[in-house]
Please model this.
Amino acid sequence: MSLLLASAIPAVAHASEDTAPVSASVDQDVLNFLNLLRSGNGSDAVTGLLSSPLWASKAGARESMIGQIDAAIRAYGPVQSYEKLSTNRLGTLVVREYYLVQHRDMVVRWEFDLVKSSSVWHVGYFGFTDQPNAWF
Model:
């Protein structure tokens, strides 16, 4: 049998609507990414998001994502526009944003998971799906 002392249990933060606002710089990183996609520059778009220290140890992530974006553009045509669909807080340390991106021949949904490390926000995950049945 083990006994835990109350002082040994770490404090738990409770999320509220106004805690841990996402920094403007990480929101701008997402918008820069989408604008570069729209201008046809998927490689620079990915490189910009992967400049965070969170991605330094993930070998092959850049090439993989660029390959997926290039395949989507070949299949669906160039990106024409985008719009933010939603922002969901997942506690005080993670925010998930969804965007719909209009290609010439298809709409895809992008997900960006913004994570807080110490006092800095980063894009911790990003990806897209072309399967509308998984969007809702």
Summary: The mean pLDDT is 82. The first strand starts at residue 79 and ends at 90. The radius of gyration is 18 Å.
